[in-house]
Design a protein that fits this description.
The structure holds two protein chains of two kinds. Chain A is mostly beta strands. Chain A has no helices and eleven strands. Chain A has strands at residues 4-7, 10-14, 19-25, 31-37, 43-49, 52-56, 59-64, 69-74, 83-90, 96-98, 102-107. In chain A, strand 7 (59-64) and strand 8 form a beta hairpin. The chains are: A mainly beta, B mainly beta.
Chain lengths: 108, 114
Amino acid sequence: KNEVEQSPQNLTAQEGEFITINCSYSVGISALHWLQQHPGGGIVSLFMLSSGKKKHGRLIATINIQEKHSSLHITASHPRDSAVYICAAETSGSRLTFGEGTQLTVNP
Amino acid sequence: GAVVSQHPSRVICKSGTSVKIECRSLDFQATTMFWYRQFPKQSLMLMATSNEGSKATYEQGVEKDKFLINHASLTLSTLTVTSAHPEDSSFYICSATDRLTEAFFGQGTRLTVV
């Protein structure tokens, strides 16, 4: 069993739909990261959170420390949101353990 | 936001040669840099952690003599793939942190060994 598991692996949505990607982890963490990887491979850090909820534009990330679960939500999805979304658990020494990613495709 | 510059973005090299990849933090001092590798359709895997001025810590299964990491300054870390083989072809990406904020990622380097 992976230390960080994401679901779903693949997600196809229509433009405008509300999207949720889930992440469960089994290790003790200092923070949970959500990353976005574009087709060319470049990675952008979306959120780093250790409790509660963060919002940036149409993106919302939540975490439940007790349940070891985090979610990434995208409201009013757009084709430009199409990318791979990765959650990563930060453990001691700032090391990141990555989930396998969720491939999101938003169709116009 | 903070910027991490990774160079080159793509490189093709002959089998047996060495390739150096640079990772620079442009507007902050990176006390720690991480090197990751990603094979197609797989998640990122940590290769090694480097702290400025000290030897890198390699993950299990990563050959330190093959993947040489140097972190000589607070803004630069290099990964050298020595005696490259086709199976080393992969996407290599670095991240850097000052340990006060989140880690920032380079753009990645797609290495093809022919």
